[in-house]
Amino acid sequence: MKLATLKNGTRDGQLVIVSRDLQRMTAAPASVNSMQQALDRWPEFRADLQARYEALNAHIDAGEAFDASRCAAALPRAYQWLDASAYLNHVEMTRRARGGEMPPSFLTDPVMYQGASDDFIGPRDDIVAASEELGVDLEAEVIVVTGDVPLGVNAQEALGHIRLLGLVNDVTLRSLVVPELAKGFGFIQSKPASALSPVLVTPDELGSHWRGGKLHRTMEVWLNDRQLGRPQAGEEMQFHFGELIAHAARTRRLIAGTVLGSGTVSNRGDEAGVCCLVEARVREQLREGRMHTPFLKHGDRVRIEMRDDGGASIFGAIDQVVRIEGASP
Q1: Closest by CA position to 69, among listed 125, 13, 133, 113
Q2: Domains plus CATH for the chain?
Q3: Would you state the torsion angle of the CA atoms of residues 307, 311, 317, 323, taken in this order, to the nearest 10 degrees?
Q4: pTM, 2 dp
Q5: For labelling, which of 114, 134, 225, 285 has a CA lying 20 to 30 Å from the CA of 295?
């Protein structure tokens, strides 16, 4: 099943069911008009939503054209946003470029922080920043959205609490990261609003590509007309999503609508490219002794997408333009 949220002038938008090919959509039942409502009462609403989805795909319900430009974030405001760093290649290279080492504990204990979840933005909304000097960067990640997760859940059981999967552009202002982390309290100013993919999908839609708690598909990232990266999301993920959820729920329960990110997708080889500009810069530093890739500029266009074996988009594309406030058009 594929679900999206349309902008309708309200904070939570209108929940719609989207066809498998992302060409058509139909309204969710009147009793469940937002994504959060569906997640809160998933056992009650799942069967009806699934039936409408099947009718849409079978053309029993003609629906109407689906246009991703009408989409808000699939979950415009979430109760919780947790972001991990499960691709340790990215962590190790970043620390090595600064002359440091990755702590051995990172191999067994996930790195995770709690970010701002009150204002996820739509897949076509601009990336807005006050200045290019802030070091505006993209980060392409896989996300899962959970139902209610009990305290102390184990990693295998945690997989059963995943309701939906999607993509996120976790925008980062690199110039603010180091000063904030030096305070010892985590990110606030360096993490502006993140953009979610147009569509979230249930795990069964992914077939064999969803296995072992990992999504085994290629993450495609474009900057303007150049492909920045196409790493495989399942290959080098140190912790699967069940392990990440269990880590988060070690001392507390998680509420339905919790969004959990994988961290920037990264493969070891240079041939796969990168999913964020800071990794491109780090690779340059390690290879050439200097960084020359710039961060995002006013007017740059970022596109993030994942496709199935037939080349069709699974979640729709995050397709954003950078807008620096006060910059010339």
Answers
A1: 125
A2: 2-69 (no CATH), 75-324 (3.90.850.10)
A3: 110
A4: 0.96
A5: 114
